[in-house]
Amino acid sequence: MQINEQIILECLNELQSAALAKQKYADYYNGQHAILKNYAMQESRSNQKLIFNFPRKFVDNEVGYLLGKPVNYVSKSDQGKAIHNIDVHMSHWDKEHNLQLRKQSEIFGESFELNYIDSGGQFSATVLSPLNAYVLEDGTAERNVLLGLHNPSIR
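Structure tokens predicted for SPP1 family phage portal protein (155 residues):
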């Protein structure tokens, strides 16, 4: 598939429409439930609104259960030095990064990880959500990525 301007514009439109649809998930996680906005007041009943943020509790409990202990890397080909290098270069941000990646995945059903070399020459990664990132795959079982878009101006 040839990536051209038309495909990029279509992907950006898809990103914007998907972000609007998935914003509801972020709102519920952040405690901005629909009942707080669309509540019909009536005199025949109590109009008190008691909200307990179950979505946040479920997500946080699931993430804590799955990643309460750090992720460990093991070499299947006796590459002990490689595992040591991974531990040295990733230990300062790895745990928090994995928690954020899993949390976004629990909230939206998907999340994205962008790996890059920073300005200091160090390996780094950031977590992107479906609110600001879009990935176009080839449709095969391998799910090869053809195009990835990140729009930081969208939330």
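Residues 5-41+49-64+81-150 form one domain.
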